[in-house]
């Protein structure tokens, strides 16, 4: 996957920026709901976190191996987080090959620290 930022629609960047403004626990709950989990918010959080970690374990090589993601992550351009979420989400969808709530997962990863997630691969 070698998407450039010029290929990302303004609508997708807007969606990513909206997700970036939400509390992180709300994003985990969203993942839990996407999985069909029902019950208390704690159950949704747990299911969402479990799914998040499972997807990232599967996609780590593709995410951290992407030169586009590395360069964008280390740049200091305005609005880069929204663009990063979109590129990471596309990488996740491409790598997983099955539908997953990739925008939410990408948003959580950016909020949690993409640089830290890939620090071993980017040394």
Our Rg estimate from Cα atoms comes to 14 Å
**Coarse morphology:** globular
- Biggest sheet: strands, sense, closure? none
- Please report the total strand number as a whole number: 0
List the domain count as a whole number: 1
Poorly predicted regions: none
Percent helix range: 55-70%
Mean of pLDDT = 89
Helix tally equals 7
| Fraction in beta strands | under 5%
How do the SSEs run, as a string of H and E? HHHHHHH
The termini sit apart by 21 Å
| Structural class assignment | mainly alpha
Describe the structure.
With 123 residues, the protein is mostly helical. It has one domain. 70% of the residues lie in helices and 0% in strands. The protein has helices at residues 10-20, 24-34, 41-64, 67-74, 80-96, 102-112, 114-117. The longest helix has 24 residues, at 41-64.
Task: Please give a quick description of this structure.
With 123 residues, the chain is mostly helical.
Key terms for this structure?
mainly alpha, 7 helices
Spell out the blueprint of helices and strands.
Blueprint: H1 10-20, H2 24-34, H3 41-64, H4 67-74, H5 80-96, H6 102-112, H7 114-117
């Amino acid at each position: 996957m070698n998407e450039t930022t010029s290929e990302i629609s303004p609508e997708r960047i807007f969606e990513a920026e909206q997700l970036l403004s939400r509390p992180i626990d709300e994003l985990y709950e969203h993942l839990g709901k996407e999985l069909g989990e029902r019950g208390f918010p704690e159950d949704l959080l747990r299911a969402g976190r479990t799914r998040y970690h499972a997807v990232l374990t599967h996609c780590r090589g593709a995410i951290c191996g992407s030169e586009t993601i590395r360069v964008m992550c280390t740049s200091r351009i305005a609005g880069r987080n929204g663009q990063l979420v979109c590129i990471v989400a596309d990488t996740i969808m491409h790598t997983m090959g099955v539908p997953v709530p990739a925008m939410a997962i990408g948003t959580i990863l950016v909020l949690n620290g993409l640089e830290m997630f890939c620090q071993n691969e980017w040394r």
